[in-house]
Write a structure and sequence with these properties.
The complex is a heterodimer of chains A (172) and B (142). Chain A is of the alpha/beta class. Chain A has helices spanning 3-36, 68-76, 87-92, 106-116, 134-144, 156-162; strands at residues 64-66, 80-83, 99-100, 122-126, 149-153. Chain A folds into 2 domains: 3-38; 64-162, Rhodanese-like domain (Oxidized Rhodanese, domain 1, 3-Layer(aba) Sandwich), CATH 3.40.250. Chain A is 45% helix and 11% strand. The chains are: A alpha/beta (172), B mainly alpha (142).
């Protein structure tokens, strides 16, 4: 390698390393918690408290996004679909065996959900497709409740239906 | 180097530094939300999204500050050019997989910039990046 270029590459590596070290020094606890699987929603929206950023608090985890193909595989393996839309919309069509959990009725539905669904279950949350935030918001709340594997299917019911996959109708 | 070229070089250096300084500062302000944006790309294992979100904004900020201060311009430009190329590869995979996600380029968790628009913006950003990288070597020569 030409000496000038080698020097430049080495210096670029040093700049990169300084950035990484700085980032880790400011966010060490977050990264350690992420790799240790200790992330939780101590400051989740359902707590009613303001989100506080502090290295002494646990950091909020977020639901992992999944795409249609993964949803099909997870459903085949027995994962539970959770519908975050309103009950009337759920009745018009939903994913097979989906649990109706309208975000607007969170406090009313939660006790039944906690009773029926194990915290080790893999949950696939969905709502009305891209641009619909309810499934993500519900996912953050369920993580706060201690559910360990919460995923959000952003394509939601419209994508599932349009892919010609089985749909169930009827109230929960 | 002619005077217009010198002005053009400094314009490109400051533009590149300014854009990346802004991007780095706003992303480092909310690392958890930025981690969610990184996770939306579905390219990394869960914990690595946090590691990337925790470090990437600081790499951008350090390199951008060097550009703005006119120090170590070539290596700093190399870092930012490389990052821009990596972002373009990631955005291309988003387009190829048909994902409709926010690029997470600037304000994490706010707004929605599609992968296509972000890819075009990064392609535009490559111009000042390459100009800075190329001309900085000549600037240091008498």
């Amino acid at each position: 390698m030409i000496p000038g270029i080698r020097t430049m590459v080495i210096e670029a590596g040093v700049i990169f390393a300084i950035g990484v070290v700085l980032g880790l020094s400011f966010n060490a606890q977050l990264v350690l918690d992420a790799f240790a699987g200790r992330l939780s929603s101590a400051v989740a929206p359902s707590s009613g408290g303001e989100a506080v950023q502090s290295s002494t608090l646990e950091f909020q985890a977020f639901p992992l996004p999944v795409v249609l193909e993964e949803v099909r595989e997870l459903m085949a393996e027995g994962s539970l679909a959770v519908d975050a839309r309103a009950t009337e919309v759920y009745g018009e069509g939903h994913l097979p065996k989906a649990f109706a959990f309208p975000l607007g009725e969170y406090d009313q539905v939660l006790p039944e959900f906690l009773e029926k669904v194990s915290k080790e279950s893999t949950l696939i949350l969905y709502c009305s497709g891209f641009g619909c935030p309810d499934s993500f918001d519900l996912g953050e709340r369920l993580l706060a409740e201690g559910y360990l594997d919460v995923r959000v299917y952003e394509g939601g019911f419209p994508e599932w239906r349009d892919a010609g996959l089985p749909v169930e109708e009827g109230a929960p | 180097m002619s005077r217009p070229m010198r002005y053009f070089y400094h314009f490109c250096r400051l533009l590149l530094g300014g854009v990346y300084l802004y991007a780095g500062v706003v992303k480092s302000a909310d690392v958890v939300v930025f981690a969610r944006d990184v996770a939306n790309y579905q390219l990394l294992p869960y914990a690595w999204n946090y590691l990337t979100a925790a470090t990437l904004p600081y790499v951008e900020t350090v390199a951008a500050l060097l550009l703005l201060c006119n120090r170590k311009v070539r290596p700093a430009a190399l870092v930012l050019t490389s990052l821009t190329l990596v972002f373009m590869v990631a955005l291309t995979t988003v387009l190829a997989r048909g994902l409709d996600i926010d690029c997470g380029c600037f304000n994490p968790g706010q707004g929605h910039t599609s992968a296509g628009v972000a890819l075009l913006r990064d392609a535009f950003l490559l111009i000042p990046a390459f100009v800075t990288l190329r001309l900085s070597g000549r600037m240091s020569k008498p």
